[in-house]
What does this fold into?
Amino acid sequence: MSPRKDVREVMLAAVPSLRAFAISLCGNVDRADDLVQEALLRAWANLGSFQPGTNMSAWLFTILRNLFRSEYRKRRREIEDADGSYAEQLTSLPEQSSRLEIDEFREALKLLPPEQRESLILVGASGFSYEEAANICGCAVGTIKSRVNRARSRLAEILSIEDASDFGPDRETRAVVNSDLTGTRRS
Amino acid sequence: MNLAIHKACRNTQPLGEKDHEGNENEPAGGAIMNSRRKPLRQRTDMDMQGTEAAPVVRLGPEIKARIGQQLRLMYGEVVNQGVPERFVEILRGLDDPTDGGPKNEPS
It folds into this structure.
C-alpha cells in the first residue's frame, strides 16, 4: 500500500469537518464544497510541503482557510449569502425546533467579524486547541483566545443568552413537558 | 493647575482594569455567598466596539456551555452528512505521481 493511499484516507476522513468549517465561513453549501475540493487538490499537489508527523487535518484547514481568505478578498460583496439559503440547500433536515435554533445561531454567527467567527469555530466546534487554531490562522495564541472570548460575548448579546433562567428545555420542549404534566393530572 | 491635571490623568489610569473581577478577592464567606451568583452581563459601549484591544464581558460557564452546544449542533449537522460521493470520486481520481501509473480503478 503506497503512503499516498494512506494520505487519501486521512483526507477523506477530514472532509466532513472541512465542509462544516467551509460552510460556516461562507454560508453557502455549493461554494463551500468547491472550496473543500480546491483545498483537497491543492493539498495533494503540495504534499511535499506537509511535515510528516504533524496534524494533517490542521494542515488541510490551513489550506482551506487561506483559499477562502484570498477568495473573500476578491469577492467580498458576494460572500454573505441571502437569508435562508443554507436551510434550503440542506438535504436532510433535523426536526423543526432544532432546525430553527440552528438557523438562528447560524445567522447570529454571520454577524461576527470573520476573524472572530473562524476562531470560535476552530476552537469550539472543530476541536482544535488554541495553539492549533493559532497555527491555522497564522496569529498568536493570545489573539485566538481574545477573538474566541469576543465572539462568545457578541453571540450571547445577539442571541440574548442571559443566565441560567434561559437554559434547559427550549420553548417547544417546555410546552410538551407542561402538557404532559397537565395530562397526568387529568388522568 | 498642571499638577491637578496630572493627578486627574493618573486617576483615570486604573479604569481599564477589570474591576468586576473584584469579587474573587472577597473573603471565603463572601465567595460562598456569591457561588450562585448570576453571570455578569454588563453591556458597555467599550464591549460592543469589537476591537482587538477592547475588554470583554466575562461570561458565566453556563453561557459558554450553551454557545458551545449550539456551535457543535450547527457543525454536527454538516459533519453528520458524511462524505458526499463527489469527494470520494475526486480523491479516488487523484493521480499518484510516485506510481506514475493510471488512476485507481473505480469500484
In short: Confidence is low (pLDDT under 50) at residues 79-84, 164-169, 180-187 of chain A.
